[in-house]
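Dear all,

This email documents one entry for the complex benchmark we are building for the journal club exercise. For each entry we list the sequence lines for every component of the assembly. Then comes the predicted three-dimensional structure of the complex as a token string, followed by one or two observations. Please use this as the template for your own entries, and keep the labels exactly as they appear.
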Amino acid sequence: MAGTLAEKVWADHVVRRGENGEPDLLYIDLQLLHEVTSPQAFDGLRQEGREPRRIDQTLATEDHNTPTIDIDKPIADITSRTQIDTLRRNAEEFGVRIHSLGDKDQGIVHVVGPQLGLTMPGITVVCGDSHTSTHGAFGALAFGIGTSEVEHVLATQTLPLTPFKTMAVTVTGSLKPGVTAKDIILAVIAKIGTGGGAGYVLEYRGEAIRELSMEGRMTICNMSIEAGARAGMIAPDETTFEYVKGRPHAPQGKDWDEAVEYWRTLRTDDDATFDAEVVIDADELEPFVTWGTNPGQGLPLSAAVPAPEDFVDETDRYAAERALEYMDLVPGTALKDIKVDTVFMGSCTNGRIEDLRAFASVLEGRTKHPDVRVLVVPGSARVRLQAEQEGLDKVFLDFGAEWRQAGCSMCLGMNPDQLAPGERAASTSNRNFEGRQGKGGRTHLVSPVVAAATAVRGTLSSPSDLLTHA
Amino acid sequence: MEAFTTHTGIGVPLRRSNVDTDQIIPAVYLKRVTKTGFDDGLFHAWRTNDPEFVLNKPAYAQGSVLVAGPDFGTGSSREHAVWALRDYGFKAVLSTRFAEIFRGNSGKQGLVAGILAQDDIEQLWKILEETPGTEVTVDLENRQVSAGDSTFRFEIDDYTRWRLMEGLDDIGLTLRHEEDITAFEQKRPSWMPKTLPARTADTH
Ligand code: SF4
């Protein structure tokens, strides 16, 4: 029977088909853990006297609470320190591999998995974190789970699940220079809404997707959850194989050939059908930016702040009204006139080496706007090392940016990297919720190159504005 | 997980709709590392600031069946919301509509989330408010709720009902199929990802 990519990966992981309304039992190839959503899961194992089934398919890293400066000193915040100490103790007790602060493989869980070559096409990946959808960029079925489910996977390496629906997100044409993967996904979310993907696995396809690097594909899949989707996927191709090949945990030799042969079968059959489909034309896309307090409230950068009356739907109108108040924006203001206090470059959406390169390429030879604070936080310790090898750190420091250690940092402000009340940020992260980056902080989601141009001009800007306003 | 067939306990009328998980338990409690002891966080803002809040009235304070308005448990997926209700002593929550994730989390923790028609919820509220401290019986086997002389039907999906009645937590249930899991594992290709022994870019 013809199938979609998601259906094929699902079918290959069914341990047991559910009967009479029971869910299917799905095998999980890889579970990633971090300090925030795992303590109660380990506690549950202990209470029931259970052992993890496959510690060799489990990996822990510290990211959400970790500081990005003075990492050799004890963590000042007591609750953060407790969560991290608890993860370390649990990892030791149960024999789970952990990459702690200061370790070269430490970093944001969704950056570390792909980097080690653990994330591969056609596998199932879970983590107690909604942005697990990132790993779908490899053609893996990857989704966030709750703490009970983390415990469930630790104990059984499976999850009972009812199949997801499928949605094709076809991106035709090619991106113009200065327009990136981030702009595609912000445009997709603006189009289908923050609930538009609920219950679905989104499969991104079409020329524009094929032309993207793995980093770009990860940026897109990462934000599938912001459209409410369970997961996002992209069929693996030569770009994928190239990225995986030679990584520490990638298959080697004969195994590699066997794996690639299987991976090539992981594509939606031509006669397969999706439950829904949306089409986006990449040729038409411009740099995108959010103006509101959910990732669906976005517009092309050349547009103006909308008025609540622009929205037909009453809920949208009310949401816009509240968002404008929180964001302190006046309808009609050109988005490019919005002044920004902080630029945050990092997160599991845009904290990879290619993102840092793109950011640096815009900064190079330019000077920072004096009123802007710029924080560059690599997604992992390896990304940081790589950037330093390439001399990107020098570009950042010369520009006047702060060059930090790896972690989630200001993406969610669980560590000291936070916006002050009323402060406004252009951020390469994924959530512009009220208070997400610090109590009272205001967030505009942008791509790395828009973040860079904004750091130069002090107002939301695209790289092309630097040419005309040079 | 304890098996649930019938439970009788004091009913608590919560005349509010759209009670989101932030209201059930505020975010500060997410920093804890334990799985129990979340009862102090339950409805924290209302319990500390609102003397009229239903659980602040002695007649309801020992309640174990919550009767809430529509859209209970929306917002953040935090499982702590269910832990807080459970730790406080609630065995069942009744509403006309639950957020999907909250309902899923409830089933995993042995908390019955029963769906009733709005008219029936209104009637229950009336009974519980007219005679504070009235006991409510939740009969899972027959999917019935009774209070005073009235009996109502509630909905719960077959699979969750069966699991709750058997007292099977998901893990225990899955472990019944351990042989299937082992058989599946034996068929997996050897090149599937393995985190151990650890390899890094330096040792590779
Ligand atoms: S970078 Fe942000 S979105 Fe990604 S895992 Fe960390 S907190 Fe979550």
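Observations: Chain A has two domains: 5-276, 287-466. The mean pLDDT of chain A is 95.
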